[in-house]
Input
Amino acid sequence: METAFTPYASLFGGVLIGFAAVLLMLMHGRIFGATGILAGAIVERGQEQVWRILVILGMIAAPVVYVLFTGVMPAIDVPITTPAIIIGGFLVGIGVTFGAGCTSGHGVCGIARFSPRSIVATITFMITAIATVYVIRHLIGAV
Amino acid sequence: MKNISYIIIGLVFGLGISISGMINPAKVLNFFDIAGTWDPSLAFVMGGALITTMIGYRIVFGRHHPIFATKFSIPTRNEIDTQLIGGAAVFGIGWGIAGFCPGASIPAIGSLKSEVFIFTIAMIAGILVARALKNGLMSKAKI
Output
């Protein structure tokens, strides 16, 4: 399934993602890592849990606000089977926990402060993601 | 005000994810599919987010402390170990299978699509299993 190349919308969206990361650091001194925010919203207690739940509520509200401005939902097409969604989700959960971060925590916030751990992690998950899609689409020939 | 700021920051992040196309697994998987239906858009998302965060962090770290907190909470670990690389590698495999990373799947919940719920539940299961395994590894190391 082809998708349209959207350099301007993607660049603007990326700037907003970075702006949110900067605001969280400016106001609260925290890294915007979706992994840490999600895990902390489940296992932390007290204010450490509350602020993370509030950030998540704001994130979940985004597609609704997007609809108010544009009149349509952002496209969300999941071109894989349900078992693949479950396996993928489970592996993402395992990986981000052992790797202590994901695209936002390592790929954006970590690299922005030149953390060697984050640079290594980002290069690693980019390579395995590209390799995985190559194996699934071009070697096995699924999808 | 402090609590509202968390919601707004989450909302800005989620709008960035929605507008950029990062919320769409079909688009993310095409970014990884260099040998097939390649869509380079996500390079613009990462680029926009990184440049914004790099510049913003430079300005913010010129302050003595965040607006609402007494100090900046920055990760201090710098060891590049098996857990970091292994975890990042597994995350990339999951991301390459499903097309969602944590920061994209959380805003996508707002679309109320069943695939997003399935992915998120599987991801949270992975996080909880990995946390239990990690705690087990740590208590073993202490013995």
About this structure: Helices of chain A lie at 7-28, 34-43, 47-70, 82-98, 103-112, 116-139. The two ends of chain A are 9 Å apart (CA to CA). Residues 40 and 49 of chain A are 6 Å apart (CA to CA).
